[in-house]
Amino acid sequence: MLEAINLSKNYGGNPVVAGVNFAAGKGETVGLIGRNGAGKSTVMRMLTGYIAPSGGCVRVCGADMAADHAAAARHIGYMPETPPLYSDLTVGEHLTYAASLRGIAGRRARAEIDRVCGAAGISDVRARLIKNLSKGYRQRVGFASAMIGSPEFMMLDEPTAGLDPRQIVELRKLIASMSGETSFVISSHILPEIASLCSRILILHGGGVAEDGTPEEIARRHSVSGAVEVETTGSPDAARGILRGVSPNAAITEERLPGVTRFRIAPQTPGDGLELRSAVFEAFARGGGASLVTLRQVERSLEDIFIDITGRG
Q1: Which of 2, 35, 104, 189 is within CB 3.0–4.6 Å of 24 for a Cys-Cys bond?
Q2: Homologous superfamily of 2-221 in CATH?
Q3: Which residues pair with residue 63 across a beta bridge?
Q4: What sign does the dihedral 210-199-160-85 (CA atoms) show?
Q5: Common-topology check for domains 2-221 and 227-297
């Protein structure tokens, strides 16, 4: 298990991370999401032992990162946003060096390099100098380097930066294929990417973890504040009057469509979405010159929830 326990980090007396707590178990894919400057990369660097926390600790498979860095780090593969690659080496030479840092050499190193090159899709550029590769291929070399030794935890900071759409899809498939045995912690500011890759999301805000759960759990916790949408037949004025009777001061929008009028009504108080839906249904059931054709709770996207949590500034 990977544990972050009350992690904090100060730069020049200014807190960037303050009291981050979470744990990731075997096979989990955890996404760190937050606005620019929320501390995502700082958290990743503390989790990998790249920088020391100002407070708190990191434990990896029971080993304390500060007290026994070597024991903790052997369980982690780390790919920062800009992978540290030796541009004057070939891909094969760089991976051989990366293997040696993990104490892997000889025949075992050659087999391991064959494995990670195949998994990352870089076997065809193994003999090329890194400086002559595209950014997308360099990202793949960084991913392959992090995979050497089959670490239990893979830390990926903005892993799809510089990849084209096809390469992004391939990387997602690779992560999915490894997720049974390998745990991932992935930092990104791209919400759809995190939602598609991760079984669990941590939203960082204000130096800490503002939300923690699966995409479905987070959506469910925040969906009740959403609006209600109805489509009606009959008099639009009558339908509008029915909705005003339900909530006199609510914001109501209206759209005329072929055969129906679509209204959206927002609850006056966050958290009252379900109660509003029930009240709208009962009001139309009593009649009044308009008939209800459809009634649904408006689903709130992860982007909407993220903006609500982190602010609109």
Answers
A1: 2
A2: P-loop containing nucleotide triphosphate hydrolases (3.40.50.300)
A3: 60
A4: positive
A5: no
- Record the tokens describing residue 107, joined without a space: 């025949």
Per-position pLDDT tens, the chain of length 313: 999 999 999 998 889 999 999 999 988 999 999 888 889 999 999 999 999 999 999 999 999 999 999 999 999 999 998 899 999 999 999 999 999 999 999 999 999 999 999 988 899 999 999 999 988 889 899 999 999 999 999 999 988 877 788 878 888 888 888 877 899 999 988 888 888 888 899 999 988 999 999 988 887 777 655 688 999 999 999 999 999 999 888 889 999 999 999 999 987 665 555 688 889 999 999 988 999 999 988 877 788 788 888 875 4
Give the HSE-up count for residue 4: Cα atoms under 13 Å, Cβ half-sphere. 27
The stretches of the chain forming alpha helices (DSSP H) are 40-48, 69-73, 91-101, 106-120, 135-147, 165-178, 191-197, 215-223, 236-246, 273-285, 302-310
**CA angle (182 as vertex; 43, 2 as ends), nearest 5:** 40
At residue 187, the 3 state secondary structure works out as strand
Q: Look up residue 237 and give its two tokens.
A: 């004025």
What six digits make up the tokens of 132?
A: 């002559």
Place of tokens 């990998």: 48
Q: How many helices (H) and strands (E) does the chain have?
A: 11, 14
What CATH number belongs to 227-297? 3.30.70.600
Strand 228-234, strand 260-265: pairing: antiparallel
- 155's tokens: 């830390």
* This prediction's pTM: 0.76
Find where tokens 């390998």 sit: 182
User: Can you list the alpha helix ranges (DSSP code H) found in 102-162?
Assistant: 106-120, 135-147
Domain spans of the chain? Answer: 2-221, 227-297
**Rg (the chain; Cα; Å):** 25
